[in-house]
Specification:
The structure is a homotrimer of 359-residue chains.
Chain A (H helix, E strand, L loop, with lengths): L25 E2 H8 L9 H4 L2 E2 L1 E2 L9 E5 L5 H6 L4 E4 L12 E4 L3 H12 L8 E2 L4 E2 L4 E2 L4 E2 L4 E2 L4 E2 L4 E2 L4 E2 L4 E2 L4 E2 L4 E2 L2 E3 L4 E2 L4 E2 L6 E4 L2 E4 L6 E3 L4 E2 L4 E2 L7 E3 L4 E2 L4 E2 L4 E2 L4 E2 L4 E2 L4 E2 L4 E2 L4 E2 L4 E2 L4 E2 L4 E2 L8 E3 L4 E2 H14 L9
Parallel strand pairs in A: 3-4, 4-5, 5-6, 7-10, 8-11, 9-12, 10-13, 11-14, 12-15, 13-16, 14-17, 15-18, 16-19, 17-20, 18-23, 19-24, 20-25, 23-26, 24-27, 25-28, 26-29, 27-30, 28-31, 29-32, 30-33, 31-34, 32-35, 33-36, 34-37, 36-38
Antiparallel strand pairs in A: 1-2, 21-22, 38-39
GO biological process, one term (chains A, B, C): lipid A biosynthetic process
Organism (chains A, B, C): Oecophyllibacter saccharovorans
Subunit structure (chains A, B, C): Homotrimer.
Chain lengths: 359, 359, 359
């Protein structure tokens, strides 16, 4: 899961000013406060007074920048860093070189995220409706809404305050959207109710008909798909992902859930709060996930099953039946992690050509 | 396969009138006729005369609504339903509570589909060309065609009568489309000939170059992709699916075939009639599927192979060679279902730690 | 891999003139020169003087057309072909019928590609800006650029000479694009620098935020994604594929690399030169591929690993750790090809029911 580790280091400078605005500088004391890290006792006054201008990886950070370490793999870079300060966990604190101020946190990645956002708070809306947008009758736009060029909004839709709709998005009739949503370019959104701060990345498809049809005497006959899609507060849906609307009930994505790119969510599916679905995973119709479930990349879940709270489904896993809360499964068909790797070892042993040594 | 089962039950009411128009009410006799279900003998005249106003799942249906049961899993809901009538198979008929009229059918899901469509017949075209659409020279539009906002239609394209082209779709030059097609928002369609009643869901990509290139002395060199895409009558292509045009021959999707979301169809591929390809499956170039083949979710078929009629390819299956007609395969590499699950059991037995009991 | 084999034969004629322009005719001598194939010694003067009008598959080619054979599977068609000339490898040369001129090459698919391109050189730009395009301030357009209808180009973007931007594409502010790029319809492109001759197919998403967030006390918190996407010269990205921009460093795709449809490339990922990533494969964040790596369809690579030069990763492979240069792996978890198929055989043998003969 990419969310569990920080960025890998690279040579170039981040935050190209052509693409990213930057605030600051900020004093080290402010950085430490945002990071939730106490400044080291006995820190020299000159250091304490220093101002920092931005964030950068260990190998390119300057004395005016704050950096970050979360992954043991990149520890060799710490010794050589020129960074003015570094956010990291207690385990690595004693390896920070003397010219660099350690900002030690229990959740360094979270602290890093907040410090980076301090410098780069992200886009805010530039209120207004682009003259090329096509706005239907009786559309309600909240205060400060930004509607980009060539957007289409169907009649009766309601867009919450501060929301940003990027170019070429298509918002269907009567869609309801809470405040501070961000709808990416080329999104198709219909038959849906969105909470606040929902983010749809470019090309996401939300609300189209589910894959439902019956075998008739002369071919398949489509079954009307009469449900909606509900995206609760703070849901994010990745680029080119697809979420079908329900057939007789709604497809529901719980508050805070994060869906990566190219994910498929079938009709009537329910995801709980703060689930994570990594790229190219698929969840078939009417399956239910409780809160805090993780589905890793390219995993597939068949329809009509139930996944318990905090279950973790591994990459490429094929889930064909219910999974208990807290379980950690992988393989196709899904099995506990330990069993999967035991199977791998057994099979390797059994098929080793005679005379070859074990590895 | 999601098409084989009906909707799972849910608490909320379907067919939010903001999103779905509704016809009716209809008398029970009409419902029974559409369902192809005989009314029970000796049905009380008051019941026979009753009018129904819509469809709903078992747990929320009222006495004025018709409901549905197809999956044994949801049988407990039947006993408690308040529905006025319920469509179901003969096996469950004797469990219908007395206040509810059973409509017993051999194909309950099909019957349900038709009854639901009676109440909710779906969108019909609102003829006309939106003033923001960009229509090329010599485009032919059939009677009653609806062209949405910001659609682009290339020169010489022909759009059949009653077709609906949603916002932001791009129809390439000289594309031919039969009558009553529905093209979703943000579809890209080029180098293609479509039959009647073809449905492309939002973001489908049809007709772009296939992935063909040769290794040259200084890198890859693209091979011209000179074929087309033919989508026969009643083909449906899901959201964000991709169908490449052929290189030297056409890519052909047979009549009535249903393709779900995020599916990849490589160049020169041939699918027969009434195939089903579930989401995130991929079919590589030049592979041929006979009629009525099912490819489940996330399955992958390599190129240049042949899949016999009515073969069923399981979820996540990896097909590396021809499959016989009627075969039922799963696993990677693909093998018969029985063999796959025998393998799973064998491996579990062999790698069980000593002293642990069999499960 | 579809690139390694030529087109499968089919009945219909390629290069429908509604969709493809054609140049020619060209004399056989010119064809042979482009193919890099010597004309057979002692070729009759009448044959040598003949003119060819196009390319076609073996079974439909006429005496005025040149055809191609690369795959032993289609050898029976060679005996019956009516083609005037055929491009093929030395192994098949003695099976060419007498009325057909063999054009024998060491790299027949490459030769074929060049000959096909001679007749069908592909689209060239029709310089100009469609009046419905929305062009931001300070955009720089090179000579001969074609901007299609309803394109949006953000402020400060630079589009290289001869580039073609198809309808509905969205080019973000300050994007830089080299010369002769082709951007397909509905592409979203932001935070990116492109070399020359980069091709993005319809619906590709390049430059959106990576999937990065930290667990906070009240849910996930997004980590600012401050890197860019660099697409070097001659990179191609398939339809509906997604390439996230980096978090602290850039996502980089090396020169000449080809990415198929529906592929996911995570943030900070590095691909070397002339890699091939086939459809529906996924590469998680911060993983690095050296040059000439092949990733087959539906394979998945976890994050933070390293793949050596010329490694070949099989279809549906699940790669959880570094792969050495030149390795050939398949399976999930990934293992050498030979080991994978030995495992398959072992398991089949061990789970064969008693009394059943080996197959």
């Amino acid at each position: 899961m990419r969310s569990s580790t920080g960025p890998a280091p690279g040579g170039e400078r981040p935050a190209d000013t052509r693409f990213f605005s930057r605030r600051g500088p900020f004093p080290l004391t402010r950085i430490a406060e945002v990071a939730g890290a106490p400044l080291p006792e006995g820190l020299a006054p000159a250091k304490r007074a220093c101002e920092l201008r931005g964030v950068a990886p260990l190998q390119t950070a300057t004395a005016q920048e704050v950096s970050f370490l979360d992954n043991r793999r990149y520890l060799p870079l710490l010794a050589r860093t020129q960074a003015g300060a570094v956010i990291l966990g207690p385990a690595f604190a004693d390896q920070v070189p003397p010219h660099c101020t350690p900002l030690v946190c229990r959740s360094p990645y979270l602290a890093w995220s907040r410090v980076a956002r301090l410098f780069h708070p992200g886009p805010s809306s530039r209120p207004g409706i682009h003259p090329t947008a096509v706005i239907g009758a009786d559309v309600e736009l909240g205060e400060g809404v930004e509607i980009g060029p060539l957007v289409v909004i169907g009649e009766g839709a309601r867009i919450g305050a501060g929301s940003i709709i990027a170019s070429h998005a298509a918002i269907g009739p009567h869609v309801v959207m809470g405040s501070y949503c961000r709808i990416g370019s080329h999104v198709s959104l219909s038959h849906a109710l969105l909470g606040a701060r929902v983010v749809l990345y470019p090309g996401a498809r939300v609300g189209q008909d589910g894959f439902g049809f019956a075998q008739g005497p002369e071919g398949f006959e489509s079954v009307p798909q009469l449900g909606r899609v509900l995206l609760e507060d703070d849901v994010e849906v990745g680029a080119n992902s697809t979420i079908d609307r329900g057939s007789m009930r709604d497809t529901v994505i719980g508050a805070g859930t994060r869906i990566d790119n190219l994910v498929q969510i079938g009709h009537n599916t329910r995801l709980g709060r703060c689930c994570v679905v990594v790229s190219q995973a698929g969840i078939a119709g009417s399956t239910e996930l409780e809160d805090f479930v993780t589905v890793a990349a390219q995993a597939g879940l068949i329809g009509h099953i139930h996944i318990g709270e905090k279950a973790r489904i591994g990459a490429q896993c094929g889930v064909m039946s219910d999974i208990e809360a807290g379980a950690d499964v992988i393989g196709s068909p899904a099995m506990p992690f330990r069993e999967f790797f035991r199977n791998v070892a057994t099979l390797r042993r059994l098929s080793r050509p005679k005379g070859e040594k074990g590895g």
